[in-house]
Every structure is written in structure tokens, then in C-alpha cells.
């Protein structure tokens, strides 16, 4: 059966809560696993994370600044966990203070 106002229903809120819980459990499993080091494009990883996190928040603007491509060697799974958490925290902060300023994500090389 279809809900007439699913997007604002308690069913939708509970589903979202369960989805966040399952994602958190999955992330804990990834964090506890031994890291798998490989070469990957950091810019692509960050861009994919930002796109997936802001899909439910079309009014939030995110500016990405860094070299493209940016090939690095490391654990893309752990970096995904870290960047996803940072982006979600930034989105929550922007929603809380109701600002029109963009979230800025920067990456690159340092000495």
C-alpha cells in the first residue's frame, strides 16, 4: 500500500533511522578490519561521498577544491569512513545554523 504523505511520515523517519543505524554498523566493521592499502583517486572518492551525502539536502552547497586526479596510496575504506563522517557533521552544522554559506572540502599535497 502506498502512503499519501510518506516523505513526512513517522514510517519514513523510522526507516531513515534504521538506515543510519545499519550504515553505522557497517562502518564499524570496516574500521575494525585490517586496512587494505591500494592506489586510488582521492578526488573521485571525495566527490562520490559528497554527492551521496548531499542528495537529501539540495539546498546545501559544497565547494570542492583540490587537484584532479589526485592519486594516493592508502586505505580507501578508512578514508571513506573519515570523510563521510566529516561531511555529515558539516551538513548537520549547516542545517542547525541555517546558513547559506557553502561547505568547503579541500585536499592536496603538503610538505
What do these coordinates show?
- This protein has helices at 10-32, 42-54, 76-97, and strands at 38-41, 62-65, 71-74, 103-106.
- The termini are far apart.
- Helix 2 runs parallel beside helix 3.
- Strands 1-3 form a two-stranded antiparallel ribbon.
- Helix content is 52%, strand content 14%.
- The chain has 111 residues and is of the alpha+beta class.
- It is globular and about 55 Å long.
- The mean pLDDT is 87.
In short:
The protein has 111 residues and is α+β, with helices and mostly antiparallel strands. It has helices at 10-32, 42-54, 76-97; strands at residues 38-41, 62-65, 71-74, 103-106. It contains three helices and four strands, in the order αβαββαβ.
Write the layout of secondary structure elements.
Layout: H1 10-32, E1 38-41, H2 42-54, E2 62-65, E3 71-74, H3 76-97, E4 103-106
Parallel strand pairs: 2-4
Antiparallel strand pairs: 1-3
Average per-residue pLDDT, rounded, comes to: 87
**Number of E-state strands:** 4
Give me the number of helical elements. 3
Given helix and strand content, the structural type is alpha+beta
The SSE string, one letter per element, is HEHEEHE
Quick one: biggest sheet? Answer: 2 strands, antiparallel
Rg over alpha carbons? 17 Å
Termini separation comes to 59 Å
Q: Reading side by side through the largest sheet, how are the strands ordered? A: 1-3
Report the principal-axis shape: globular
User: Unreliable stretches, pLDDT < 50, 5 or more residues?
Assistant: none
Strand portion: 5-15%
Helix content: 40-55%
Amino acid at each position: 500500500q502506498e502512503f499519501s504523505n510518506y516523505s513526512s511520515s513517522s514510517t519514513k523517519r523510522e526507516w531513515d533511522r534504521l538506515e543510519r543505524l545499519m550504515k553505522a554498523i557497517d562502518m564499524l566493521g570496516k574500521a575494525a578490519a585490517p586496512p587494505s592499502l591500494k592506489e586510488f583517486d582521492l578526488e573521485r572518492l571525495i566527490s562520490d561521498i559528497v554527492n551521496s551525502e548531499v542528495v537529501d539536502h539540495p539546498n546545501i552547497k559544497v565547494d570542492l577544491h583540490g587537484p584532479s586526479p589526485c592519486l594516493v596510496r592508502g586505505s580507501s575504506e578508512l578514508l571513506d569512513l573519515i570523510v563521510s563522517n566529516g561531511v555529515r557533521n558539516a551538513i548537520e552544522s549547516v542545517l542547525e545554523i541555517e546558513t547559506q554559506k557553502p561547505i568547503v572540502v579541500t585536499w592536496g599535497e603538503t610538505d
